[in-house]
Design brief:
580 residues, alpha/beta, ABC transporter transmembrane region fold, Rossmann fold, 2 domains, 22 helices, elongated, transport
Length: 580
Amino acid sequence: MQTLKQLSWFFRAHWKRYVIGISFLFLIDVLMLWPPRLIGETVDSIRNSSLTSAALTQTMVILLVLGVLLYVMRFVWRYLLNGGALILERALREKLFSHLTRMTPSFYHRKRSGDLMAVATNDIPAIEQTASTGVLTLVDSLFMTLLTLGVMVTVIDWKLTLAALIPMPFLAWSTAYYGKLLHDRFYLAQEAFGEMNDHVQQSVSGVRVLRAFVQERADVEAYRRVSEKTLERNVSVSRIDALFEPTIAIIIGFSFLIGLGYGTYLVFTSAISLGDLVAFNLYLGLLIWPMFAFGWLVNVLQRGGASHKRYSELLMEQPDVQESANPVTDVAANTVEARQFTFSYPGTDKPALSDISFVLEEGDTLGIVGRTGSGKSTLCRSLLHQYQMSKGMLFVGGVPIEKLSFHALREKIGYVPQEHLLFSRTIEANAAFGRPDASHEKIVRALALAEMKGDLAQFKDGLQTMVGEKGVTLSGGQKQRISIARALLTDADILILDDSLSAVDARTEESIVRHLRQERANKTTIITAHRLSAVQHAQLILVLDEGRIVERGTHNELMQANGWYAEQYRRQQMEQDVTG
């Protein structure tokens, strides 16, 4: 019942649909009480030899009309209640998807993809079933039971009714006992399903690595263990699920046994008529569905409760970064500034960045270089405000980042990450992802600036070439260049390229950098790179080491300083001369 209370917001929003559907259910339950009484009276008329053809015809016509009427009314309530449940499922999916798009990277570090998929594919349908099957069985079993028992007590015989209900307390105990077991086991089964989903997702995404290290058999064996665990937990759910129906059938069988035995005795003692006994057994037959429905209701509610718990736990997660109460929504300047910026990732004590300070004027280019793990990407992600940080340390357009609205900040900054994600769409759609309304000419020009035009001529369908999942059909360099074209097409005031030229050769890199300088002469650009030639034109270059700035200046100044930058630059130039 707790699950239905938690869904009360939906029932209130669609109360008309549910009121009409439940009203039809109630009318059906009332009409269902008529045929047993008619049949019982007909049996008494036969026994008394008082049945006429007119009376028999009238009874048959009434039963036929009732059958048609019940058919129509059942269609109406099924349409209303099941349709409402589908609306709920859509609302839950939209709410979940909206919530996931607001979460920060730390959330996805904690949560496995398989668990998120399990909530969307398994838990939401279980909740939806609660709003359809759960409501149906709750209302129908309650109404039908109360109405049928009322007629059996008042019209037939209260003693016979009471005797037939003796086994019912056992039904209440067994459903409560099985229900608790089912809730706990279904929750564990859903967790196991999430683990299995996560394993499949990782295996499919990393299939190239698996093959490269000849780990196919080991991964299949690992999947077998995960799937066996999922199977065992689902079988444990099925064991409890399978006990519901036989238990209810046995209890109902005892009710029929008592009703038939004691009812026969009452007929022989003339306490009730034979027609009353027939009607009583027909009414007892009407109780079969409510009794089964009651067990089914417990099953559905427990599954829905376990799923709703997982769903609610997911929605209770809050983004680490919260937007300011009165955020700034418009920033004119394109400057970027850091004032003794220090940052640590959530859950760690060691700073990833320490005492970072710089001023990047509008139209300037900032180059960030350093060894692997020196903090280059961390600084880029910090400028996107992806993590919670100290206030008054990072500024965009003279405004502290924490005071900017998320929309304004992300509209201001174009970002090309290290991990290039392409969607299973055409090259044109991927390039225009940030500007879906961009013209064909602008898309072609952006791809040309990213040095992708020559590659397009090699594809049979050109711009309409379908890209496999995550760009699996393209090379690393092609994926990088499409990602750069995507960012260039947005024409953002501030562009961040996070090691986005690592997969292209030196000549292609030189062409892309030249195009960037021409196209973004009056706009701000930040480039992180391992190949120093990508940043030598920058007005300011920062050399990071273990999260600290160890060198700063222009290319010429750093070469004169004869430090790490100069040494690395000369080494790369020698390597290029040897390979070139």
